[in-house]
Design a protein that fits this description.
alpha/beta, Spore Coat Polysaccharide Biosynthesis Protein SpsA, Chain A, seven-stranded mixed β-sheet, six-stranded mixed β-sheet, elongated
Length: 343
C-alpha cells in the first residue's frame, strides 16, 4: 500500500530509480519511505538505498502486508503523531528509504507554525540529526557581534538568550560573543556556560566586521565551520543544522531569505519557548533584508583562512554585497529569520 500527501513533489528520476529498487527489492522489506527526515544516520545497503534507523515525515511511504497489522495496532487510538509511531516500527521491522530522497513536500502554509514553511532540507536530502551532524556541531563555532550599551540593564537579554539557545539546541557548538563598547556590559553569568567573551574597546560607530574578525582570531584549529551572526537574529535549530550540512557542499550559505521584526511581546514569547510557538507570523510583513550576509552567514573555515591578511576587507565586501571574489560557491537559504526586539 502506498500512502502520500497531495502536496508531494517527486524527483524527475523517480520512476527510473523506484523501478530499479522494486526489481531488486529486499525480500525482507516491510516499509519504504520515498523521502524522510532522518533523526539518526541511515545505513547504506545498496546504491541510493538505505536502511532506516529513525526517520520522520510521512508524506510518501509504502507498507507491505507483513507490517500492516502492526502499523494499525501502534496507531489505533494513539495520541502520538504517525511519525513517532512509525519510528517505533522501525526498531522492530525492516524499513528502507532512498538517498537522495525521491520525494519531498512543496512550500506551503503551516497551521502549526502559522506561516509559509519551506522544508528545503528534504529536497536537498540533508540529514540534520545523528552522529555525523553531532560531529559537525563539534567542529563549528558561532560568533555573535554585540553592540554593548553601557547603563542598560536589559540590553543584553537577546545575546544572553542566543548563547543559551545555541548551547541547548545545538550541543557541542562553540559560541563566542564579541562586544564593542567603551567597557564591558556583560558578565560571565549572563552567557551560557562555556561561551567565550571578547571585548573590543571602542565607543565609535558599531563595526560588526571588526567584531567578527576579532572572534575569528580566537577560533581554534579544529573548527571547520563558522557562523557569523548579529546579536538579535533568531533562526530555528533545525534550519541552522541544515545550513551547516549544506556547507559540506558549498563554500558558504546565507542564513535566511526573509525576515520579520518581532514585537516586544512576541520576542518575550520566543525567548521563553525558544521557538515561534503560538505566534501568528502571517500578521507580519515578510521582507528581504539587504545584502545576503549582512546579518547572518555560514562559512567553511578554509574559505576564510584563504583570505589571510585580506580577511577584514573580504568580510566588509560580503556584508556590503560587493562581489570581490565570485569564485566561491554560495547556497542561498530559503529560511525565515526572526529579528528580536531590542532588549
Amino acid at each position: 500500500m502506498l500512502i502520500f500527501e497531495d502536496d508531494v513533489v517527486f524527483d524527475p528520476s523517480f520512476s527510473e530509480k523506484f523501478s530499479v529498487f522494486v526489481r531488486g527489492l529486499p525480500a525482507d522489506w516491510d516499509m519504504v519511505f520515498l523521502g524522510a527526515l532522518h533523526r539518526e544516520d541511515p545505513v547504506p545497503v545498496a546504491e541510493n538505498v538505505v536502511r532506516l534507523r529513525q526517520a520522520y515525515s510521512t508524506y510518501a511511504y509504502a507498507l507491505r502486508a507483513s507490517i500492516f497489522d502492526a502499523f494499525i495496532a501502534v496507531n489505533d487510538g494513539s495520541p502520538n503523531p504517525v511519525d513517532v509511531n512509525n519510528g517505533i516500527l522501525q526498531s522492530n521491522y525492516n524499513c528502507y528509504g532512498f538517498a537522495p530522497n525521491l520525494a519531498w513536500v512543496e512550500s506551503r502554509y503551516s497551521p502549526v507554525q502559522q506561516r509559509m514553511a519551506d522544508h528545503w532540507y528534504l529536497r536537498e536530502s540533508i540529514v540534520p540529526l545523528g552522529s555525523q551532524m553531532d560531529s559537525i556541531l563539534r567542529r563549528s563555532v558561532v560568533i555573535i557581534a554585540y553592540r554593548g550599551s553601557n547603563g542598560s540593564a536589559t540590553h543584553g537579554q537577546n545575546v544572553a538568550f542566543l548563547s543559551r539557545f545555541y548551547a541547548e539546541f545545538l550541543p557541542g557548538i562553540k559560541t563566542c560573543v564579541v562586544e564593542q563598547g567603551g567597557r564591558g556590559s556583560l558578565e560571565p553569568s549572563d552567557l551560557a556556560a562555556g561561551c567565550s567573551y571578547l571585548l573590543v574597546q571602542d565607543e565609535g560607530r558599531f563595526d560588526r566586521t571588526r567584531c567578527f574578525a576579532t572572534g575569528l582570531e580566537q577560533v581554534t584549529h579544529d573548527c571547520d565551520f563558522v557562523i557569523l551572526s548579529d546579536d538579535d537574529v533568531f533562526i530555528d535549530a533545525l534550519s541552522i543544522r541544515a545550513n551547516l550540512r549544506i556547507c559540506e557542499r558549498y563554500d558558504c550559505a546565507t542564513g535566511f531569505k526573509s525576515c520579520v521584526k518581532l514585537t516586544e511581546a512576541d520576542t518575550e514569547s520566543v525567548r521563553r519557548n525558544k521557538f515561534a510557538k503560538g505566534i501568528d507570523l502571517t500578521t507580519y510583513g515578510q521582507t528581504e533584508e539587504g545584502p545576503p550576509f549582512v546579518h547572518y552567514g555560514l562559512f567553511r573555515r578554509d574559505m576564510l583562512r584563504a583570505r589571510g591578511p585580506r580577511l577584514d576587507s573580504f568580510l566588509k565586501g560580503l556584508i556590503s554585497d560587493r562581489n570581490q571574489d565570485p569564485s566561491y560557491r554560495v547556497f542561498h537559504s530559503p529560511n525565515m529569520a526572526l529579528r528580536l526586539y531590542p532588549g
